[in-house]
User: Which sequence fits this backbone?
């Protein structure tokens, strides 16, 4: 019930002891309250006058009050402790996310990590403040009550005691049955509920195709089927509650009848009999509450597990480096550098476990929903409802194995909460699929919800036998994307985005373009140079100094990294531009903004640089976001290394054209590494490397490579080239 | 026409600004009251079962208390307490049984209502095409509305049912006590009124705005953290770990503090309710001593009366929390009602529908002017365009230039302020019934349903045979890929088509259009986000599949443009450049420059 990981938090023992003391105090006050009440009732039964009630009533009232006050204190202690733990966990998780860096984050899934941090902490909190006091109650109160009853009426105590295993037995049997059943039905359950959300989301499409009317009945039918499924699960869960309830009330009834019998026989006095009866419900109460909350808090338990797993991840090492930044005569030599995305041991099991976890949790909810006493956890299992809503956000799956940073926001730039929903697998096969053959093999197991992942992983491994495939399968456990580019890739089973035996030498203010097909490793290389990816092997020499990786403070202090969707945060435009140089004065900011081509736009805004942007990137176009990122670069003169990762891929051609005019002068006097699909940039760089499946296949000056019939020409050819010039004679 | 401002479903601003006017929200409600009026018999049964459950609970303690007291008088034999013995058992069995039934029935009722609510949501949404087009890209609003329905479920189960049952039990108690003593009944009534009316109202006043504020804090934390995670690379290279860690920490702490305050209130409130019951118990004890000690047989009932009180605590204590949570649900309810109102206000007067007599010959924009409401800049100004059947027209222009608007106008989802949009000389407003047959539409992110490939392709043409589906798949060159899947066209595509890559998803959506054989195809930047090779493949496939059809293509790139018959550049709501691509290339240096840039033509 209680998570072992809870014991690593400071103050847990103290809190538990405090709660234990309070529970014991509560047990005592329950005894006092019951005795006082019994005493009064016996006095009345004996037809005593009002003044004889003073003391017993006082005992009852004060004990009752004390019991309630202890309850308040208990909840106070538990809530405060829960708050303390989440307040301690949040910075730890945040620190870890920072330490793991963008590569680690995108491997875990940005959306799901945000959800874990915000919703997860909430659930952990609920879990802690619910479970701790209830656990203590269950440990002490029934025993204390039973002991009191034992002194009064051993027979009643025996009845109550014997009822306990029966209670647990039925709880276990029926609880398990319910869970089993709902586990089995989970896939259907989930599917029926997501069908609704799916249909709602697809409504524009249905309407466009003119079939929205037909689907109205479909919605109703699906909902009705969902209702029947839900009801069948709920019925089982309710039966378990019923059994629990039934035996509890039956026990009280039996105790009452036994006591009545004994009283008639004169073998027991009124006081002990009445006291036993009054205490009987309090004997069962903690056990029932504990049972109710067990399922209700599963979410929190799982969330805590997730967080602990994240916190246990090893961090990339950060080395110190004594270096003054990139100069006109600086040199960078990279030799035989290789990188593959790490195989996370837990990924596979986590993937499978997660599926199981979700369904467990769904079952739990269904059960919790049904079991909730007095409206405690009373809710229709919103199983799919919430999960379906979560899913787009947690769709980190496909992103995981793609080029470290493939979170692509829509051109409209609306970000905010629906990151995941919009983030897309860089759709053009960036996710280089598990080869055609294995894709097929994987497909055979697609029926079950949980088994699917296992099967896929297994079969993929079986089919290729290669380690690389194993890595692929594990890095992206969820979706298998079919390849329709057959043959070619099957020959070289290299992990998507991995790099192998890379040699590169950069000198002074070189402008280097990195090109290649999707998934060739362009973004991986940029991430490597930014220090987000740590190479497995190879040597790096920076101005004669040896580096293990680019994850070095001195290096990172001199780079600017501009991805497809640059980081725009909630704040003024000026604050956004100041991100690298926070103490820059207004004039410098304005100058940088002008130089980045923001002048006209700023002039059109009534608040100019102080205009508030962000909040889901409202009011900012993709081109403007890029210009703000450029203004940052201009403002920070010490960052002489520019890393671009597809900065214009999402822009319309005119915006791209205009941005290019701004960008070209900024690129002067910088070391520029520019990963792109857009070949026109080749005209403006000094050097180009073309990557193909993680290897450099062409390297040199663009003018020397183009028209030589090499791989670069082949790529240009595939992209289409100038078709109109060929039509001139029309 | 109302301005299509997106509904701000995410923020609870109206709540946080002050006390919500519940009456205003409940007034003109389409999503809650109508359902409470449905299936009244079942509803009454639920309330009856709920009430009887607590009657049994109280009855169990009543009879057993009496049983003990009477037995202690040591009557001659067991038959003297026969009735209470039987009743004790009956109540003991009755309580869990009725509770079980009540839960089954209420869940069933609520789920039935949910089925209907879902249909209502679907129907409401499908009435408003423009709303859908605006939000289909984000999808989040639609998802949120679906969540709101889930909230309504809980509203019934957590708030409505327990509260009504508590009030019914209140009546039962008042009457049954009143039979014996009106003074006791009146005193109890007043004390219960504290628990069931005063304290819930105080709770409501306390929680009002708090939930909304916490939700807003949560939302803001969400936004900030998401932003910072997306910008993690910039945080890392600036080494600002401390600041990064603190992103959203203010909101987190504030929400934590607010929740702690709320919990504290709840703790003390429940404590107060319990103490009111303690006072009642003492009152009953004193009262029994005053009135029931006249004879032994009467005194035997004292324990019964007092003990029966305690099970009722469970019934009454939940009301305060249930009422306090009303703002939580009101929020959802107001989203849904706002949606209804908006859809209602945007319904246009019905236009007499016509049928095109022959194939599509021409599509015309005739001096069309359009803006989103008065005071908004005109997206199109006196825009005219003549398209002949079979022509391929490409629309270009900077974002925000109303390119998509042209498609929406053409579909009839939006109506121009002046001018007409005509197909074969018939206004599109009069062709809405026939619209799905005329227009095929491919957008940036095609929606694939979580079902099989065949069902997805067949969506627009349900009667199509397997052979036709295969033919359509082959036309978009997915034939081999699908054939290689073990289940063929019956392979599921999985949620949002995650099993397929971006280009494949687009091709699957294209197959729908191929199968449906619409004469006019509208493309809204279908290649955005695709790499150039995939982009080129997709477009050449589109042109091939739509050889004989009319094509209106909104694009952000010029690649593939050479296959178009007409290129139109929009600027400031009007046509800035127009012509055949080859002509423009020859005569217009700007076009030539852009084209060469786009296709990566490196020759100088």
Assistant:
């Amino acid at each position: 019930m209680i998570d072992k990981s809870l014991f690593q938090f400071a103050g847990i023992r103290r809190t538990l002891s405090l709660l234990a003391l309070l529970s014991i105090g509560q047990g005592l006050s329950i005894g006092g309250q019951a005795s006082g009440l019994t005493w009064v009732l016996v006095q009345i039964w004996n037809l005593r006058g009002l003044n004889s009630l003073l003391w017993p009533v006082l005992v009852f009232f004060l004990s009752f009050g004390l019991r309630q006050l202890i309850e308040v204190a208990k909840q106070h202690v538990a809530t405060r402790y829960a708050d303390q733990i989440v307040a301690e966990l949040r910075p730890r998780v945040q620190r870890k996310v920072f330490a793991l860096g963008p590569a680690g984050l995108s491997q875990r899934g940005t959306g799901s990590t945000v959800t874990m941090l915000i919703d997860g902490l909430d659930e952990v909190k609920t879990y802690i403040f619910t479970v701790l006091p209830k656990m203590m109650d269950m440990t002490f109160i029934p025993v204390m009550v039973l002991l009191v009853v034992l002194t009064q009426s051993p027979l009643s105590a025996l009845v109550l005691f014997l009822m306990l295993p029966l209670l647990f037995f039925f709880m276990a049997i029926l609880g398990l049955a319910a869970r089993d059943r709902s586990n089995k039905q989970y896939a259907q359950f989930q599917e029926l509920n997501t069908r609704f959300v799916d249909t709602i989301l697809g409504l524009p499409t249905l309407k466009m195709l003119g079939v929205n009317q037909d689907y109205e009945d479909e919605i109703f039918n699906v909902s009705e089927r969902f209702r029947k499924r839900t009801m069948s699960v709920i019925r089982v869960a309710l039966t378990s509650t019923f059994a629990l309830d039934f035996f509890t009330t039956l026990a009280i009834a039996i105790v009452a009848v036994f006591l009545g019998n004994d009283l008639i026989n004169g073998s027991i006095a009124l006081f002990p009999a009445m006291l036993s009866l009054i205490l009987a419900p309090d004997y069962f109460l903690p056990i029932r509450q504990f049972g109710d909350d067990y399922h209700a808090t599963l979410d929190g338990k799982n969330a805590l597990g997730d967080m602990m797993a994240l916190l246990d991840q090893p961090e990339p090492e950060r080395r110190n480096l004594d270096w003054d930044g990139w100069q006109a005569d600086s040199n960078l030599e990279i030799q035989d550098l290789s990188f593959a995305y790490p195989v996370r041991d837990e990924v596979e099991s986590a993937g499978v476990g997660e599926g199981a976890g979700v369904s467990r949790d769904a079952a739990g909810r269904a059960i919790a929903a049904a079991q909730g006493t007095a409206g405690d956890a009373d809710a229709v299992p919103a199983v799919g409802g919430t999960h379906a809503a979560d899913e787009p956000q947690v769709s980190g799956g496909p992103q995981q194995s793609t080029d470290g940073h493939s979170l692509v926001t829509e051109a409209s730039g609306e970000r905010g909460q629906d990151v995941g929903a919009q983030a897309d697998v860089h759709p053009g096969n960036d996710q280089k699929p598990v080869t055609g053959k294995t894709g097929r093999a994987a497909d055979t197991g697609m029926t079950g919800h949980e088994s699917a992942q296992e099967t896929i992983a297994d079969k993929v491994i079986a089919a290729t036998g290669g380690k690389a495939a194993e890595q692929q399968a594990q890095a992206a456990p969820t979706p298998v994307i079919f390849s329709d580019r057959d043959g070619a890739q099957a020959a070289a089973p290299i992990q998507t985005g991995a790099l192998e035996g890379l040699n590169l030498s950069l000198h002074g203010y070189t402008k280097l373009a990195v090109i290649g097909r999707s998934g060739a490793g362009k973004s991986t290389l940029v991430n490597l140079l930014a220090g987000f990816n740590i190479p497995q092997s190879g040597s790096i020499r920076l101005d004669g100094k040896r580096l293990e990786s680019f994850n070095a403070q001195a290096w990172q202090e001199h780079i600017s990294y501009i991805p497809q969707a640059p980081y725009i945060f909630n704040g003024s435009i000026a604050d956004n531009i100041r991100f690298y140089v926070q103490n820059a004065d207004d004039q410098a900011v304005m100058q940088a903004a002008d130089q980045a081509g923001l002048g006209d736009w700023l002039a059109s805004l009534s608040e100019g640089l102080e205009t508030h942007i962000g909040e889901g990137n409202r009011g900012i176009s993709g081109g403007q976001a890029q210009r703000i990122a450029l203004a940052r670069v201009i403002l920070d003169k010490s960052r002489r290394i520019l890393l671009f990762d597809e900065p214009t891929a999402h822009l319309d051609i005119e915006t791209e054209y205009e941005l290019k005019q701004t960008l070209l002068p900024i690129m002067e006097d910088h070391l520029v590494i520019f990963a792109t699909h857009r070949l026109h940039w080749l005209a403006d760089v000094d050097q180009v490397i073309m990557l193909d499946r993680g290897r450099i296949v062409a390297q040199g000056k663009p003018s020397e490579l183009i028209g030589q019939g090499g791989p670069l020409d082949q790529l240009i050819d595939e992209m289409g080239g100038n078709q109109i010039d060929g039509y001139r004679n029309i | 026409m109302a301005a299509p401002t997106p509904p701000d479903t995410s923020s609870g601003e109206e709540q946080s600004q002050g006390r919500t006017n519940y009456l205003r929200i409940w007034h003109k409600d389409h999503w809650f009251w109508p359902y409470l009026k449905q299936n009244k018999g079942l509803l009454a049964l639920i309330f009856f079962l709920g009430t009887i459950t607590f009657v049994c609970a109280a009855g169990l303690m009543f009879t057993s208390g009496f049983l003990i007291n009477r037995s202690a008088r040591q009557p001659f034999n067991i038959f003297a307490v026969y009735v209470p013995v039987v009743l004790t058992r009956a109540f003991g069995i009755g309580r869990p049984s009725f509770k079980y039934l009540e839960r089954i029935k209420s869940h069933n009722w609520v789920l039935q209502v949910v089925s209907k609510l879902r249909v209502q949501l679907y129907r409401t949404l499908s009435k408003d095409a423009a709303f859908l087009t605006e939000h289909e890209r984000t999808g989040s609003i639609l998802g949120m509305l679906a969540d709101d329905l889930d909230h309504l479920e809980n509203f019934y189960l957590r708030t409505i049912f327990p509260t009504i049952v508590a009030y019914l039990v209140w009546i039962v108690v008042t009457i049954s006590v009143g039979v014996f003593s009106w003074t006791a009944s009146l005193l109890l009534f007043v004390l219960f009124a504290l628990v069931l009316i005063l304290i819930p109202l105080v709770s409501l006043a306390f929680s009002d705005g708090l939930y909304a504020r916490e939700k807003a804090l949560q939302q803001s934390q969400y936004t900030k953290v998401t932003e910072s995670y997306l910008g993690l690379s910039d945080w890392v290279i600036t080494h600002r770990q401390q600041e990064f860690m603190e992103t959203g920490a203010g909101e987190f702490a504030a929400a934590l503090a607010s929740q702690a305050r709320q919990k504290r209130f709840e703790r003390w409130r429940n404590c107060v309710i319990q103490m009111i019951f303690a006072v009642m118990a003492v009152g009953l004890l004193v009262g029994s001593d005053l009135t029931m000690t006249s004879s032994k047989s009467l005194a035997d009932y004292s324990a019964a009366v007092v003990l029966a009180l305690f099970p009722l605590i469970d019934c009454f204590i939940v009301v305060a929390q249930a009422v306090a949570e009303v703002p939580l649900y009101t929020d959802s309810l107001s989203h849904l009602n706002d949606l209804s109102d908006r859809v209602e206000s945007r319904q246009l007067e019905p236009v007499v529908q016509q049928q095109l007599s022959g194939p599509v010959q021409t599509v015309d924009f005739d001096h069309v002017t359009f803006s989103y409401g008065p005071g908004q800049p005109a997206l199109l100004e006196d825009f005219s365009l003549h398209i002949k059947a079979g022509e391929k027209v490409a629309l270009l222009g900077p974002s925000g230039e109303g390119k998509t608007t042209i498609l929406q106008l053409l579909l009839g989802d939006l109506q121009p302020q002046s001018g007409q949009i005509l197909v074969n000389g018939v206004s599109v407003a009069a062709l809405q019934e026939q619209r799905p047959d005329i227009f095929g539409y491919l957008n940036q992110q095609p929606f694939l349903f979580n079902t099989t490939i065949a069902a997805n392709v067949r969506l627009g043409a349900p009667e199509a045979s397997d052979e036709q589906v295969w033919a359509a798949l082959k036309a978009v060159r997915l034939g081999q890929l699908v054939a290689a899947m073990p289940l063929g066209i019956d392979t599921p595509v999985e949620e949002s088509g995650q099993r397929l890559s971006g280009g494949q998803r687009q091709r699957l959506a294209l197959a729908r259009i191929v199968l449906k054989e619409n004469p006019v195809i509208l493309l809204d930047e279908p290649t955005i986000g695709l790499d150039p090779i995939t982009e080129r493949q997709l477009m050449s496939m589109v042109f091939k599949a739509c050889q004989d059809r009319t094509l209106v293509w909104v694009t952000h790139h010029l690649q593939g443009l050479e296959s178009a018959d007409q290129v139109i550049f929009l600027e400031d709501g009007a046509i800035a450049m127009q012509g055949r691509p080859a002509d423009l290339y020859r005569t217009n240096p700007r076009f030539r420059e852009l084209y060469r840039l786009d296709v990566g033509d490196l020759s100088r």
About this structure: The longest helix of chain B spans residues 82-127.
